[in-house]
Amino acid sequence: MSLPLDIADPRRRGECPTLEVPMATGDGLLARIRVAGGRLSPDELKALARLAASHGNGLMEVTARGNLQVRGLTAASAPFFAEAVTGLIEVESGLVVDCSPLAGEDPEELDDPRPIAEAIRRGAEAFEGQLGPKVSVVVDGGGQIWLAGLKADVRLVATGRDRWVVTPGDGGEMDGGGAVRVALKMLRALAELGPAARATDLPQYRAETAPHPGPPHEGEGGGPVGVGWLRLSNGFSMPVSLPFGAADAGMLAALADAASAAGVQTIRLAPAHRLLMDNAPDGLIETASALGFITDPADARLRVNACIGSAGCASGHFPARAMALRLAPALPAGVSLHVSGCPKGCAHPRPADLTLVGTSAGYGLVIGGRAGDTPATMLAEGAIESAIASAGRQG
Ligand code: SF4
Asked: SS3 of 382, please?
């Protein structure tokens, strides 16, 4: 028996995969799971990994925004996968409103963003159907997780206790209630413009309100990302990064087992492809590293972004993550690299120091630009490592 299934079309502008409406990709259907509150127990992570292995191809991803994705589902398996996931954990739907994964427990945050995020979600319910699926809100209470690199149509940033600035807006400070009202006003204006509208279409949008590129240790899938310990009001959390945002289900199930055996109760999904393990004892970091996760802030893989490439995308000219793994040891210190299966540049829309891009003419190397820019040079397969090493040194 198979259940009816809607499939998101990646060719339609603004389409986003969800659990109920997965997206067709080169390796089957991709489902994005918006875990409510962004927290899982080790048992839940293990159960999700098992479902990914039995219903999909076993490849899982943590996105730049901290969402979980499962690849390789089929039209037959996807509805059963969705049913099993919703029976296991609470899944969010509706308007995307992102906060720090440490929200409410971060001793360095200026204000708790969660009540504001909840008020915006509730307030937008009446008109969210008219908003495009990519429209999003970031509510940034400050603290250790820097959200400035996450794209948002409406952004609320705490400047102190119950003091907020909203963009687009007039740049003035207001209390939380006022910030919610302004945010909803902007969202309603977007809804009136229709599902194709984004914040840049609003008259209130000003170029200077565009997302901040973020400090060098954080950001949307880009730049070096810190993996140091994070303080909680009641303990600490240990970040573990997925190499290039991906891991197979067996690797994640083994991590969940180790976390469970170590007494970890909460695993948080975090921006920049990370999992945060609350109150993890020392031994867990070595286990995570041995399993293939990134735990060392100096690991060169943290300076490399890569999409799946031809291993799971019909537009890819080569398997980008496999190439990224090959090139990471050659990357000079401090240099960032984007390995992109094609000029679309999904894994890193911003410029990188070096970008290796697949084209119909072969491998292109872009210096200081984006995947869609004209390559400075075209490379033969055997010359890529040395070109990356020397271009990085010159840069
Ligand atoms: S950059 Fe190209 S190859 Fe990579 S995921 Fe996007 S469309 Fe596919």
From this structure: helix
Q: pLDDT digit string (tens) for 204-252?
A: 766 544 444 444 333 333 333 444 789 999 999 999 999 999 999 999 9
What is the distance between the terminal CA atoms of the chain, rounded to a whole angstrom? 58
**Structure tokens of 386?**
């040395």
Cα distance between residue 33 and residue 296, in whole Å: 27
The arrangement of strands across the sheet holding 28-33 comes to 23-25, 28-33, 68-73, 59-62, 246-248
Beta strands in 255-336 (DSSP E): 267-270, 274-278, 304-306
Pocket test for ligand 1, best of 313, 318, 359 (most atoms within 8 A of CB): 313
Query: Which of 13, 15, 304, 340 is the best mutation target for the ligand 1 pocket, counting ligand atoms within 8 Å of the beta carbon and taking the most?
Result: 340
30 contact partners, CB below 8 Å, separation of at least 6: 17, 22, 23, 24, 69, 70, 71, 73
* CA max distance for the chain: 60
The reply to whether ligand 1 has any atom less than 6 angstroms from the CB of 134 is no
| Ligand 1, atom nearest to 314 Cα | 8
Task: Name the residue with the closest Cα to ligand 1, atom 2.
Answer: 342
For 100, 134, 158, 174, 290, the CA distances from 287, given in Å and listed in that order, are 26, 37, 37, 46, 5
Comparing C-alpha atoms, which of 153, 157, 118, 125 is closest to residue 141? 157
| pTM score of the predicted model | 0.89
Q: What is the dihedral of CA 213, 34, 281, 304, to 10 degrees?
A: -40
Q: Could you tell me the two tokens for 10?
A: 């990646």
Given a contact cutoff of 8 angstroms between Cβ atoms, the answer to whether 239 and 284 are in contact is no
Cβ of residue 342 lying under 6 Å from some atom of ligand 1: yes
Task: Give residue-wise pLDDT tens across range 107-140.
Answer: 999 999 999 999 999 999 999 999 999 999 999 9
For residue 359 and ligand 1, the question of a CB distance below 6 A is answered with no
